[in-house]
Automatic annotation (TrEMBL):
SUPFAM superfamilies: Winged helix' DNA-binding domain
Protein origin, superkingdom: Bacteria
Positions of region (Disordered): 153-174
Keywords noted in UniProt: DNA-binding, Transcription, Transcription regulation
Molecular function GO terms recorded: DNA binding; DNA-binding transcription factor activity
The organism of origin for this protein: Roseicella frigidaeris
Annotated HTH marR-type domain residues: 14-147
GO biological process, one term: response to stress
Protein name in the entry: MarR family transcriptional regulator
Coiled coil: none
Length: 174
């Protein structure tokens, strides 16, 4: 698309191209981690849990449910094996014993790091090729694709994590 074209009047074909770009970009962005996860009998749902628990050590199960937008049953199908296989630690909250606080174990941190490194290379290469103005435009477009709830969750993730009284390591459950 030439510079100076008025993007306020996008044609259907240009919008379909945007869908194609998102599809193929996501497919290739996730291919490396998908391969690593498949070797471990895991999938993208496991990756999402590892990612967000790694981003926010001590995250509550409720907060994770909100970020992922899934049911408790769906999360349990993914989280239970991650806990049983030693990737995630689940601890009881000190102030509210009903809370379950999640953090990565050393094994979980190592796997999350390995997955991140595969994707980091893709992002770094794309950012270098596109340049800083395009990177900022990409971020604006991605935020524009998010609904208000997702933008609010992203803003919370971008802020430094507040210290959690009673954050792991605590009494292990599960």
């Amino acid at each position: 698309m030439g510079a100076g074209r008025n993007l306020l009047f996008l044609r259907e074909e240009e919008l379909r191209l945007a869908q194609d770009l998102l599809f193929f970009g996501y497919r290739d962005f996730t291919a490396g981690p998908d391969q690593i996860l498949a070797e471990l009998g895991m999938g993208r749902a496991h990756h999402r849990v590892l990612h967000f628990v790694g981003r926010r050590p001590g995250i509550t199960v409720g907060e994770l449910l909100g970020i992922l937008g899934i049911t408790k049953q769906s999360l349990a199908r993914v989280l239970t094996p991650l806990i049983e296989q030693g990737y995630v630690l689940q601890a009881t909250g000190r102030n509210d014993r009903r809370q379950r606080l999640l953090s990565l174990t050393e094994t979980g941190e190592a796997l999350e790091r390995r997955l991140f490194e595969r994707q980091r290379e893709w992002v770094m290469q794309a950012y270098r090729e596109a340049g800083p103005v395009a990177v900022e435009g990409f971020r604006r477009v991605m935020r524009g694709l998010m609904g208000p709830a997702a933008r609010a969750q992203l803003e919370r993730l971008e802020r430094p994590a507040p210290p959690r009284p009673g954050a792991p390591p605590l009494a292990r459950t599960g």
